[in-house]
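Good day; I would like, with your permission, to put a structural problem before you. A protein sequence and the structure tokens that stand for its backbone fold form the material at issue. The record follows directly beneath this note:
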Amino acid sequence: MTEISRVFVGIDSSKLKNAVAVASPGRDGEVRYLGEFDTTEAATRKWLGRLAGKHDQLTVCYEAGPTGYGLYRLIRSLGHACVVVAPSLIPKKAGDQVKTNRRDAESLARLLRAGELTAVWVPDERHEAMRDLSRARGQAMDDLKRKRQHIASFLLRQGLHYPGKKTWGKAHRIWLASVKLAQREQRFVFEEMLLAERQVAERVARLEQAIRDAMADWALGAVATALMAMRGIDLIAAVGLIAEIGDLTRFRSARELMAYLGLVPRERSTGDSVKRGGITKAGNGRARRLLVEAAWSYRHPPRVGAAKQARVAAAPEAVRAIAWNGQTRLCKRFRNLTKAGKRPTVVATAIAREMAGFVWDIGRTMAAAAGRD
């Protein structure tokens, strides 16, 4: 029987060069550094072709980072196994203070051979595009908040303060239009600030419309629609959650999803001593923030408002039942934790953790209905 030749390839990727190392099978197998190669597709195909000509199987890995998933997709298209590694979970020696491209590539190859690396989930190109769209809207909203804060701060320096309660509504904009400034230069600055705010607000509206348009033919659009049955989750939050998390059925349990979102407590236990701290904040921070923001809505008694009824009606009956059970439980939980004297931020985080469980249940229910479970 012919023995299959197999090697493990570690790549330290960067913008212009990829440092490549190869580890032979076995604990004492040789680890060779092949050098640095251009990140172009032609150069990658060339050195992969050379390795494939010498070995029957190639297993390749590189760290997740700003270079994206193009390298992963290219390697997979050539018929080789590839793993994108979570950088924060790569084992590191405490006393190792030297970091070079060569050492990183050799370390990745060695750890891949030992099975010590944790892979991240790689979205397909359409899903990545939806994630980019969702993040672009989030960045635009952050920009809009900054622009509005700049206007409020500028007016406050002039001794002007809006007397109403709700800002950036119709009444507030009428008040802004009536503001009179004595100095010509300040009037010019104020008009420029208002123009910048309007432009960013229009950009946010365009991105939100693009998200609505993209929902129709998105593979996970039905799951996002189902999530909107939950209190505190609208279209933008639902798309943001699914875009960041991906297919919910890849988590075997709700606890796995909670851990992925960094909503489980830290723990340092030894012997009979058990010490738990705040949440780990590991994993996807954007999805965690969306859940925490949604969790604040559960401080109110359970109800389905007029604006929410259409979103609830669009979900399957089984999902509506999950959403209502979640609302009654989480509203009661929010009230009980508050009565127990817990800080509001701690309560919201605890509710967000339990919300993740209901999100996972809805994802599993939708997958079962679609025959994917």
